[in-house]
TrEMBL record:
Gene3D superfamilies: Spore Coat Polysaccharide Biosynthesis Protein SpsA, Chain A. It holds the Pfam family Glycos_transf_2. The keyword Transmembrane helix applies. This is Glycosyltransferase family 2 protein.
């Protein structure tokens, strides 16, 4: 088949610190760049427009809904969906360029290498963190409830693997990690509630957080990442406790 035309899609809200780096890295492979913004109050929209992206304002109603809406705004059926804090490496950009010349199957996964407070994290289950981000939008859609959205291909569609990493600049400070953890654990508790998984025991409050730390720090070799690995393992364990603690208090108030 002839070379495909590619739309790069990004959803944003107050991403002025990261969006320029993200958009500059797709030059040369993107035939169309669309940013769906949730009414940012900083310079996100201005930066995107300065870099030639189409900006569409759309109120945020959930990650799944927002990403499906954004995918629908692309000019072309072949879509690369990125988060504003992700940057393509040269190797990944070259791999995408090769796929554009010889597209096969329904989509492709990419690996993410996360930068945590200035350190690259390669253990603890954080790498390669493969995500299906390059896809033919006619053959799938974003699925999920409130958290952990994922792109699902139609049954029988082949999924390939891209070479190279997307650099994920996730957390700039411990305070930012804790702040986001507080928000995400509330969403996770809400999701469990909606899925009717409302029973919380001491197993959930004590053993699951303990296992989260042990599994990430020891079994997944998080200790090899030094302070970053220790911080991630401990905060992640606290996150498990908070998720179930918030669910328990919600269940108690509903009785």
């Amino acid at each position: 088949m002839p070379a495909v035309l590619l739309s790069v899609v990004v959803i944003t809200f107050n991403e002025e610190a990261t969006i320029a780096r993200c958009l500059e890295a797709v030059r040369g492979i993107a035939d169309d760049v669309v940013v769906v913004d949730s009414f940012s109050t900083d310079r996100t929209v201005a930066i995107c427009q300065e870099l030639g992206a189409r900006v569409i304002q759309h109120a945020f109603v959930g990650y799944v809904q927002q990403k499906n809406f954004a995918t629908a705004q692309a000019r072309y059926d072949y879509v690369l969906q990125l988060d504003a804090d992700e940057v393509l490496t040269d190797e990944l950009r070259q791999s995408i360029g090769q796929v554009k010349q010889n597209w096969q199957g329904g989509g492709y996964t990419l690996a993410r290498l996360t930068n945590y407070c200035g350190s690259w994290v390669r253990h603890g289950g954080w790498y390669p963190d493969r995500k299906l981000r390059l896809y033919d939008r006619r053959l799938g859609r974003w699925e999920g409830l409130l958290l952990h959205e994922r792109y699902e291909m139609q049954p029988g569609q082949a999924v390939g693997t891209l070479q190279g990493d997307a650099l994920h600049y996730s957390y700039h400070s411990i305070a930012q990690h804790i702040s986001q953890l507080n928000r995400f654990t509330s969403i996770a508790a809400d999701e469990l509630w909606l899925r009717n998984k409302r029973r919380v025991t001491w197993f959930h409050l004590l053993l699951k957080p303990w296992w989260k730390f042990v599994h990430g720090y020891f079994f997944r070799l998080g200790f090899l990442d030094g302070f970053a690995g220790l911080s991630i393992a401990l905060i992640s364990a606290v996150g498990v406790f908070l998720k179930f603690a918030k669910l328990k208090t919600r269940s108690a108030s509903a009785e």
